[in-house]
Amino acid sequence: MSTEKNILVLNCGSSSLKFAVINSTTGETKITGLAERLGSNEATITVKFNGNKQVTALVNNNQHLGAIEYLVSELHANDLSESLTAVGHRVVHGGEVFTSSVVINDDVITAIEKTSGLAPLHNPANLVGIKAAQATFPALPQVAVFDTAFHQTMPQKAFMYAVDNDLYKEKGIRRYGFHGTSHYFVSREAAKHLQQDAEQTSLITVHLGNGCSICAIENGESVDTSMGLTPAEGLVMGTRSGDVDPGLIIYLMNQHNYSAKQIDDLLNKQSGLLGLSKLSNDCRTLEDAVFGDDVEKHQQAKLALDVFCYRVAKYIASYTVALSHLNAIVFTGGIGENSNYIRTQIINQLSILKIALDEKQNEAARFGSAGAIQASDSQFKVLVIPTNEEWVIAQDAAQLSESK
Questions:
Q1: Is the pTM value of this prediction over 0.85?
Q2: Using an 8 Å Cβ cutoff, are 392 and 144 in contact?
Q3: Active site residue 106
Q4: 8 Å CB contact between 176 and 224
Q5: Mean pLDDT of the chain
Q6: Strands 381-384 and 328-332, sheet pairing
Q7: I need a labelling partner for 39 at 20 to 30 A (CA). Which of 115, 220, 275, 379 fits?
Q8: DSSP H helices in 137-246
């Protein structure tokens, strides 16, 4: 039997599933995997182990379950199952119930189910991972790490909506924020890059993927973030609209007989890059279309990416209001880490803040390469830092499972 203490980390997203086995003592990653484009005909799962990479198509109709079944078979095949000491799960929404990570029990599962209405694309997927891991590894402690926890330091002026205050007091209606583990991790890594203590570092962190959010971090603490009560608020995303006029919902209901479900599907599953482009929710596909020969697809894709980048730039500029000083802007997430085109389009719209990029450094900082990408005359530093939510989850899971 293995003497290693490894943590299995599951990160089930709306269209992806990341997993990793991480040594809780050394931080060494034993195996990693990414299932992506789940829910589409292009769904695949990539597993990396001992320097080898294997890509497999997922044809299971229920692709989240298919991905979990595949990863479990890989753990058994590579003799990693016996070394596991806990399973750490990313859970998107903790509501007001959870302000920190917790060991999962029946009451925790019930509470997560009750908050699923606030994160309909995510919490149900998170629960799939939890229940599958409980069935597969019944003897292991299971720990839930919540995206909302890092943002509990936001002041009331940032998290309150300007609606009847009774909605907050009686129903917990407020802004919570998400991607907390990602914003936390890259803020700490940025502080190291800047050779500063995290508690003295102020940043605007920009997480861009199928889900997108921005966070204003003042001296190491979240003071504002773009997502709100649900992950639908804020930036344009893969299939989510981000900010819209609340009157739009009333208009569609009263004038066009939309049901609540139709509106939910519209704003969460049929909007964003997909809705604007009518081509894809995947930024890579849209960038290919922008540089392709099909004029119609070029125009549709360019419109979607123009709106996407403008919204990000606008939020970055507005979040300078929340900070007393700014040490750097940090890009992360699948798009933020890998698309030099998107980063260029965003930063070019911030010239009023005297921010500019170095073209060569920007192109080099892709596919896992971190670094500063600002031009020499830029007023603020611009960093690209690959996120590592799995390591944050593994650390919390190890600590809580050992103290159980």
A1: yes
A2: no
A3: no
A4: no
A5: 93
A6: parallel
A7: 115
A8: 156-159, 166-171, 180-194
Which candidate, 361, 316, 362, places its Cα nearest to that of 340?
A: 362
Q: Which positions ≥6 away from 349 have C-beta within 8 Å?
A: 309, 310, 313
Whether the per-residue pLDDT at 327 is higher than 50: the answer is yes
| Tokens read off for 15 | 């269209």
Ramachandran angles phi, psi of 190, nearest 5°: -65, -40
Per-residue DSSP letters for 55-116?
A: EEE---SSHHHHHHHHHHHHHHHTT-GGGEEEEEEEES--TTT-SS-EE--HHHHHHHHHTG
Q: How large a percentage of the chain has pLDDT more than 90? A: 75
- For residues 190-218, average pLDDT: 97
CA dihedral 107, 108, 109, 110 (to 10 degrees): 50
d(CA 145, CA 5) in angstroms, rounded, equals 19
Structure tokens at 365: 């900082």
Q: Which of 123, 146, 272, 302 is nearest to 208 (CA)?
A: 272
Which distant-in-sequence residues (6+ apart) come within 8 Å of 51 by Cβ?
A: none
Distance between CA atoms of 129 and 67, rounded to whole angstroms? 10
Q: Among residues 252, 289, 250, which one has the least CA distance to residue 270?
A: 252
Torsion 129-81-389-171 (CA) sign: positive
Contacts of 306 (CB under 8 A, 6+ apart): 345
**CA gap 75, 33 in Å, rounded:** 11
In degrees rounded to 5, what are phi and psi of residue 374? Answer: -80, 155
Give residue-wise pLDDT tens across range 13-48.
777 888 999 998 888 999 999 998 887 888 899 999
Where does the pLDDT of residue 129 fall: very low under 50, low under 70, confident under 90, or very high at 90 and above?
confident
> Which residue among the candidates 79, 106, 107, 147 is catalytic per the annotation?
147
The answer to whether 212 and 333 are in contact (CB under 8 A) is: yes
Q: What distance lies between CA 174 and its chain's CA centroid? A: 20
Residue with more model confidence, 1 or 297: 297
The amino acid that residue 242 corresponds to is G
